[in-house]
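Quick one - inputs below.
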Amino acid sequence: MDASLTSEARPQSAAPPTPSTPQKTQAFSAGTPTASTALESISIAIAGSGGSGVMSAGNWLLEAAARSGAYGLMVKTMGPQIRGGEAAALVRLASSQLESLDDSFDVLLAIDWQNVHRFADEIPVKPGGLLVCDVDGGEIPEVFTRSGARVLSLPLKKMAKASGSWINMLALGITGALAGLPVEALEQAVRTGWTRGEEALQTNFRALREGMAAAREHAPQARRIDPQQGKRWLVSGNEGAGYGAIRGGVRFVAAYPITPATEVLEWLAPALVEAGGSLLQAEDELASINMIIGSSFGGVPSLTATAGPGLSLMTEGLGLAVAAEVPIVVIDVMRGGPSTGIPAKSEQSDLSFAVGGLHGDAPRLVLAPSSISDCIETTQWAVELAETLQSPALVLSDQFMGQSRAIVDAPQLPEPKGKRLVAEANTPNYKRYGDTPSGVSPMAIPGTPGNTYTADGLEHSETGVPSSQAADHARQLDKRARKLMRHDYGNRWADIEGDGPLAVITFGSAAGPVREAARRAAAEGVDVRTIVLRLIAPLQPAAMAKALEGVQRVMVVEQNHEGQLLRYLRGVADLPGRPAGFHRPGPLPLRPADICTALREWAQAKEETK
Amino acid sequence: MNDMCHPPGLAAAEPFTPLHYKSATKPIWCPGCGDYTVLNAVTKALALVQRPPHEVAVVSGIGCSSRIPAYTSCYGFHGVHGRSLAAATGLKVARPDLTVLVASGDGDGYSIGGNHFLHACRRNVDLTYIVMDNHVYGMTKGQASPTTEPDWDSKLSPGGTGVRSFHPLVIALAAGANFVARAFAGDQNTTADIIAAGIRHPGFSFIEILSPCVTFRPEQKEWKNLTHPAPVGPTDDAARAAKRIMTDDGFNIGVLYAGHRAPYSGGPGAPTRSLQEMESAFAL
Amino acid sequence: MKSHSVQAPRTLAELMAQAYALEREAVERYGELADVLATHNNQEVAALFRRLASQEAMHATEILRTMGWTRAPQPPHLPDAPAAPGPEEAHYLMHPWHALRIALDAEQKAHDFFAALAQRCEADEMRLAAQRLQADEREHITLLQSWLQRVPEPPAGWDEDPDPPRYPH
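Output:
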């Protein structure tokens, strides 16, 4: 396999895990043999209504897992109320890095059942799983009991009241024990950031241990995730994107809050100042995009973050950045669309808009991180590319990656290197938009003597003078297209793993369930090559052709209704055979089992047509 | 103002009560939110005015306050962030027979909606615009809004924005609003009276309602001790109103200005030319 | 802006119509409070407010019965009529004790209102009626106080939320 097709190196742990007790996940459907390469993981959901503290419990569980050497992922789901609403923390822990939720949950602990049934679609419980609830909590909703899971009823409220502790401490103890986490790790997680005094802490530690004891007494042998070596980070996609921006060199951000992107901006607000930059809260997204164009025109790498509705408002500004060749980065944390859509849920339905939604012929960079950890590196790369190519870059993150936290291997981040080609002072015959072979022309930064020019959204000559001449228009269109298309993006444009006549192409958070499905399929003898796109636009035909060498059929997997990536690829690439699409809209996450089933059926269909 | 008056010709009919204007949908606002009172005041005001619910439209943008249309039994339009006045303008100009209420929060109305606010006041279409002002972005969990104090600490603007807060009443007056009032969500009856007065007053009626956010600005509980009836009644002299509003303590409650500008009159009329007559201009 | 020439009800019917309106408003407001708390998953206090609502409904029905009305006439608009407690008094973590205190406060205001009206009424028949209403409210107050005895006072830190609206993460 030559270099361009090898997968991105992922740091491996020093020693492979050696479990002392078998800890395979259950087969997802009866009759399927347990795959030896199945991910060793446990999935726990903690649910309850406002005031019961399920999010804190989930966070502590994740942090305790981090301290004890495990990997993990936590997703939050909530009702529409600002406070007091029904909520669930969905936690998955494993012995290797996770990028996806499992198909179903081993444990659902409900502190109470208030409206938890509204999350039933998101918390499918395994038939051999465990429901833990309050013995005084009323009837368990049928939607959960019909899973066939066992029930463990404990007097949770009474226990908490008796000990004067928070009920979520019991929940933490119970789930922590079921996950095989040591009490020291759980206590340390709670202690960090505790502000209520030592006495309250000790009371709650007693409750924690009480919960653990109850779990051990009533529930079967807890699985244990073996501690892994190596440095790890605990980070959310939104935080990671913020850090990636700073690494890439961003020093000015204009911000307007919008779910689910606000955390990117809130993380950047103090961090930018620490890095020597600044953030400004704008009056709306029209202002934000124009502000960052202005600051970038002034020479400062600039960025904003938004979601679908905000991106729609920014389109005019994006076009201006294309035409005037001003580098900017816009992070789009995708959510359910169209229009106001489903603000707090994930979807990958802004792709068509990202690659095509500007008036005129307006090429631009579109990138997509493919995991929580990748949000850091891809955002950094987007800044570098924007600066190098003097172009707007869209980063398609999504709510799933943005607002979930994960324990990940400490990323090996490349040194920031993409820099703006800046015109030297007093360049003779300076042409801001000169038709260079690469398409990138030196940009004069205000304050530099001798090279003053006027940046313009109007079509222009090489010196920037507005022009309606055919020759100028053709020249500038070619230049702006060429600079993106000819750039050497190296290996990072896609992560290609595995081999086989069948290839799955995907992007963003869909990569996690796709990779997991591919592993399961391979164990069944269905070999699949996965191509996870990181650079979606431009798509270089030669690179894609190479990626598809030997591939007979392609399936495109994505989380939207129309099959937006499939449509795009059919337009810009030569796909072999008749490409298949696996596309489902949000709000539910894509499940590895469903993708694996689709792969299996697809492979069988291929067999039958031989 | 008058109490309930029966619609002409329907003296024997049942008057509409506030309950007639409420839908069965339960609000999800936090317990303690001022918007509950505003909802009650709106339904009470509509009962004072006695328009049938199906002849009233409530247009809103995005934010906690903007959820209000679904909680009424009127026709509702829950549009996009900041554009409620634009949508309402289109509706009212094309359908002058309807009573159109517009609802916003301080973020939706004064930040992203700022431009439309200026021009709605200028244009003076017969609308009643109520802004539930809680000096914060609540739905996105606690960022400063244009009416937030410059030194209010938040995650997005640590240490405060440092930017002077917006004064919507003065701006409305300067831009040409025909009716300018301030209300307080803690006093349901007064707020209802003010809204009813705004509906009855021709042209663009702007009512800023101080509506505390119990979740992100719990200190606004103090507002019930700070608000007080305006010391004088409304004036129709814009300059006098401007001086009063620019120098008041921000907690004067009541109608502050009620002017005599003619409302916008550019709506549709009866057709005066047939298509054939129009075609004749092209025919050779 | 507003002028109220009516300072006291002029007839018995007006007085009783006012009393009826107060009870009905209380039914609505307690119902609203119950809905708000149910939406925010505080079922215990939601149930309590529903109970209070049905109590007020009973009081309202009693007035109709006393007056032989099937429907009450419109009440006069009295400026100092107490407003029923609204949802802004609630807290999503509130305890039954808080709810009862809110109800108690409302009953006290109603009691004081009727006491003041009794002072202002000139006609004997009306003064007696106002005093009876005042006495009824006194009974309600006593009942609520007894309920209050039977619920525990909320512990310190009752409004601490382990998951505040702005999570650290």
